[in-house]
Design goal:
Elements: E1 4-5, H1 6-16, E2 21-24, H2 31-36, E3 44-47, H3 51-65, E4 69-74, H4 75-92, E5 96-102, H5 118-122, E6 128-131, H6 138-150, E7 157-162, H7 163-166, E8 169-170, H8 188-199, E9 204-208, H9 211-215, H10 218-228, E10 231-234, E11 249-252, H11 258-265, E12 270-274, E13 295-300, E14 314-317, H12 320-334, H13 337-368, H14 376-386, E15 392-396, H15 401-407, E16 416-418, H16 427-437, E17 443-448, H17 449-452, H18 458-464, E18 470-475, H19 480-492, H20 513-519, E19 523-527, H21 530-542, E20 547-552
Length: about 550
Amino acid sequence: MAVKTGRFAIIEQLLADGIKYMFGNPGTVEQGFLDALSNYPDFKYIFALQETIAVALADGYARVTKKPTVVQLHSGVGLGNGIGMMYQAMRGHAPLVVIAGEAGIRYDAMDSQMAADLVGMAKPVTKWATRVVDSASLLRVLRRAIKIAATPPMGPVFISLPEDILDAPITEEIVPTSLPMTQVAPSDSAIAQVATMLANATKPLIIVGDGIAFSNAQAEVTRVAELLGAQVWGADFSEPNMDATHPLFGGLLGHMFGSSSRRITSPADVVLICGTYVFPEVFPALSDVFAIGAKVIHIDLNAYEIAKNFPVDLGLVSDPKLTLAKVAEELEHSMTFGQQTAASERVVELTGAKKQQLANQLAADKRVMGSVPLHLSQFAQELASQLPYDAIVFDEAITHSEELCRYIPPTTIGHYFQTRGGSLGVGIPGAIGIKLAQPDKTVIGFTGDGGAMYTIQALWTAAHHKINAKFVICNNRSYRILKMNILQFWRDRQIPAHTFPDSFDLHNPDIRFDKLAQAMGVQALRVETPEQIRPAIALALSHNGPFLIDLVISNELPN
């Protein structure tokens, strides 16, 4: 084997694993490694103007491919910039392999410029973090990182790469990384136990999350729900784990206050949790989330989450698709006529209630059609009529997501992705990453004005690499979610409502997202009136290149 240095060998290892993109922001200590990229035309460097954006681009790409995705950050300062988005990737189980260069092992004693404990910084937001200290183990460590990132529960890993390691000769053989298979199913006796608990329920409830999408188990969870007549709710739910238009899909549990979720979870006498954890609120309930005596079943490939916060009666570390398919088969054979009849009655009742709820929402939307400032519902209705059937939506509309999803409902795995993990600013770079992974699909990213200002430089990356994604800024000139949350805070503490903090508003001066986009090479329009909506959408979708719509909408609060 010809001797090569680490900066070349690491690229060849990534290519051997089918990894062809690196998302990053260049720095001095990585300059030799980046210089080597020109020798590998099949390996593309996606250039971001800030490390937060590099991680968010990779997160979007990884969400579609569900494969290890490489991010390059610059030393301690670059890693510091990227940590917020690495937290997003950790909570969302994105298989990112994050690498950061550093000056070199020989400089450890010098406490030089930008010196930092990179591994210590990365540990809280990764599955595994390490530093390569021996050039003979560079590729072994890289393969281990790729394996850990890609093994459920997937998540980001971090490798610190000293420059002298990358400059040293490498004699390790380059071989593809070995990835374990994790599609495991429980025993027949365990399946029978689950089915018996569920069949005996009079008020069954199913709570699902993104583990369903990872396992491609949408059909299986839907079948179990239909057999039981159980309503399905989402927790840590950012993909179409169940078709949102299905009569048994109830929506998402609250993301902020556990008291909101408790109203849904506490009436149930049997709860099936699958592919998620309980519960992902910012202020979760500490007790009484389930009824006294309620049976709780938890199915997940992530053993850490089972019974982490609340006891369960049965926990199964297994693949959701295989497990739910077996549960459905057992229910079909074991449910009595009386149980089947009761389940059918629940289906009829839940179907009627959902139909009435949707009618009420559409009627409310109709009352504000044509108003100025605009409401997202009017824009979403028109977009739905022009958007290709197989388009992909990245949704960081946050407080306007409900309106968006009424007209463009998430139905199919791989065609809808919502923000997850809590980091603002994923909408623009997330859509760019998805478009890179799905170049033949129409990809449109929604974000708010607040979120957009965290990562607005990502528009330059779209223009620079000619990535034909579309973007909509829901410009309500405020941090609307903070206003909604503080209203709940006031109610919980019996504080009279009063003027919102000044820091919740984003105006004076007004932010012109259309002009910001144009300054970075992205075509854009500002939409403020109803008659501007249709032509703006048509132009955006037909334009050969990235395009942004600055949509000025009402900042009034629900109810």
